[in-house]
């Protein structure tokens, strides 16, 4: 028991983390980001904002730390996922949609 007698060399496995790392890189380069309006009531004068979490931060380092958190990544994943149900989906599920009369039979 133990090892497989036919395999001499241990098979190398690729890391699953490298494929996932690219999924969450959604930040735009600083040149493309439009400056926000100054607002004295918001932290950081309203300049450091997370669109996904709807939060303002006091400076870029705090915002960048927030981008690495589990809550932010989970919210981004939810927002990138499938769209919510539409009214048509609700009608079809409730039996109010288009009727299904079955396959058409040939009339002779």
UniProtKB/TrEMBL annotation:
Location in or out of the cell: Cytoplasm; Nucleus
Species of provenance: Thlaspi arvense (Field penny-cress)
Record key words, sorted: Cytoplasm, Metal-binding, Nucleus, Ribosome biogenesis, Zinc, Zinc-finger
Gene3D superfamilies recorded: Classic Zinc Finger
A GO MF label: ribonucleoprotein complex binding
Residue span, C2H2-type domain: 50-72
The organism's place on the tree of life at top rank: Eukaryota
Pfam family, one: zf-C2H2_jaz
Family membership: Belongs to the ZNF593/BUD20 C2H2-type zinc-finger protein family.
Biased composition (Basic residues): 1-20, 68-78
Cellular component GO terms, alphabetical: cytoplasm; nucleus
PROSITE patterns cross-referenced by the UniProt entry: ZINC_FINGER_C2H2_1
Name this polypeptide is given: C2H2-type domain-containing protein
GO biological process: ribosome biogenesis
Region spans: Disordered: 1-23, 68-108
InterPro entries tied to this protein: Matrin/U1-like-C_Znf_C2H2, Znf_C2H2_jaz, Znf_C2H2_sf, Znf_C2H2_type
């Amino acid at each position: 028991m133990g090892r497989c007698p036919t395999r001499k060399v241990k098979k190398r496995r690729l890391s699953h983390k490298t494929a996932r790392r690219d999924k969450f890189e959604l930040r735009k380069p600083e040149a493309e980001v439009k400056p926000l309006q100054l607002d004295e009531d918001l932290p950081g004068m309203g300049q450091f904002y997370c669109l996904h979490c709807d939060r303002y931060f006091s400076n870029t380092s705090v915002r960048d730390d927030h981008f690495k958190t589990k809550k932010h990544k989970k919210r981004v994943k939810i927002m990138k996922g499938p769209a919510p149900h539409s009214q048509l989906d609700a009608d079809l599920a409730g039996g109010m949609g288009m009727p299904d009369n079955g396959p058409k039979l040939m009339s002779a």
